[in-house]
Amino acid sequence: MPTYRDEAVVLRTHKLGEADRIITVLSRRHGKIRAVAKGVRRTSSKFGARLEPFSHIDLQFAVGRSLDIVTQVESVNAFGEPLVADYPRYTAGQVMLETADRLVVEEREPALQQYLLLVGALRVLNAGTSDGPRASSLILDSYLLRSLAVAGYAPSFTDCARCGLVGPHRAFSPAAGGAVCEHCRPAGSARPSPETFTLMSALLEGRWEATRDVAERDARETSGITAAYVAWHLERSLRSMAHVER
Fold it and tell me: 65, 69, 216, 228: which has the fewest C-beta neighbours closer than 10 Å?
């Protein structure tokens, strides 16, 4: 039976029969993979604990008829262990896993950028940035904006997303694709503060030094606009987002 190896992050699991599980992972080279892990729900399983959501693993698959079979697992990073004791960071991580699962639609299609972005976000959520620790909400918003950008939905924070008029502008519309001028502004558009636009731009570009000493009002406004932008482009809200402390 042919086999192959890859690094991956476990996104979710489902029970199968009495002792097996179907795991969904986002891998470095093969994109999203659904595979059967046999016997992992038994207490005698050698690698059952390594196949839980958040686990960053190196694993071997045997090619099956419909689903491949997990034959070997080695832990790379146990991202889930520090998160379970920190509710804000744990729920932020759950949103990251669900977002990656939703954005990478096709199985076995390479999605290296999404994989690297997810691993990096989980690492920062656990250990902080090189510029120091950041609130879990900022880390989550940065991940959401950047993962959407990789998927082709990068928002505009300066020029008008509809007509291209040079900004900055004061209105933001998820449906229009970001900042909009007064002429293009749809009804119901948000009017974020200039500081919120600056913060969202820094989060999208990964400029963590610019997120130091952020005002709570601007952070809350950023989270609300980011959640609305994600819900619009994914066509429905993320289920795990309801549990995030904003």
Answer: 65
Tokens 């620790």: give the residue: 133
Distance CA 115, CA 51 (A): 17
Structure tokens at 134: 């950041």
115 within 8 A of 26, measured Cβ to Cβ: yes
| Nearest-5° Cα angle at 103, 99 to 109 | 130
The CATH label, of 3.40.718.10, 3.30.450.40, 3.40.50.300, 2.40.50.140, for the domain at 3-78 is 2.40.50.140
Summarised one tens digit per residue, pLDDT across range 86-108 is 899 999 999 999 999 999 998 88
Mention every residue, 6+ apart, whose C-beta is less than 8 A from residue 88: 135, 136, 137, 244, 245
